[in-house]
Amino acid sequence: MNRDSMKSFDACTLCLQSAINPMADLDGAIYCKQCIYQYLLDQKNLYKKMMKEYKKYKEEEKLEEQEKEKQLEATRIVAFVEREKGAIPDSSAKKQKEQINNFWLPASTPAHVKSKLKKPSSVILSPKGTPIKLKDLITLNLTPLPTLDSAKEKKSTILTKDKYMCPTCNKSLSNVSGVYCIVSTGNVFCQHCMDTVIKKDLMDPLTNTKFTEKQLLKLEAEGSSFACRSGNTLEATKVTPAPRL
Ligand SMILES: [Zn+2]
Ligand SMILES: [Zn+2]
């Protein structure tokens, strides 16, 4: 696989740069803390704006209903007047009725043209379209590569992408097949260590704390695993966040 064409595994889903203060959602998407906070705030404001429009629409709809009711009432009055006049509808009564109908016509016509406005959903969706909540975001504890400075000096495009390593095997996380995070601790490991050691003990080797298999989250690098996302989100959606103390 051509690593150069792939974005770094820690790329922020929103700004596409290497994430600063990286956080992950329950889908394994990575964000800068600031980017995702701003995103959630924007979505919240958008919802508020849409809700305001919706309320206005509902009020207008109510007014239109009242006008329709008035129109009906007017028709009823005309009918009543006609009946009172002696049951034979003469031409003047007919004319009066038409006038009333015509009077109400412009008000009722746009109501039929106007499209129905749906009530906006209060559920905030992630950029990838799955529900996302601030309290579910996981702060990632990534282990920096000790050789970062020397790698920068070499000016290699591949090496400068490598910022973090797996804390158990010390391999750069940009060169492993998969990156996993333990939801309860936020610690990040390579797939190999996860499969061969950590998953077997269900013990975070950095904190020596137990975790459940449901608290394992595969981190999805932006752009590198998008193609196969459609069928593999089951694992991520099953994840339950650790109870906050
Ligand atoms: Zn960002
Ligand atoms: Zn490892």
From TrEMBL:
Keywords: Coiled coil, Nucleus. The keyword Nucleus applies. Residues 2-44 form the Nitric oxide synthase-interacting protein zinc-finger domain. Residues 40-74 form a coiled coil. Its main location: nucleus. This is Nitric oxide synthase-interacting protein zinc-finger domain-containing protein. The lineage of its organism: Eukaryota, Amoebozoa, Tubulinea, Elardia, Arcellinida. The keyword Coiled coil applies. PANTHER family: ENOS INTERACTING PROTEIN, NITRIC OXIDE SYNTHASE-INTERACTING PROTEIN. It is found in: Nucleus. One of its GO terms (cellular component) is nucleus. GO terms for molecular function: ubiquitin protein ligase activity.
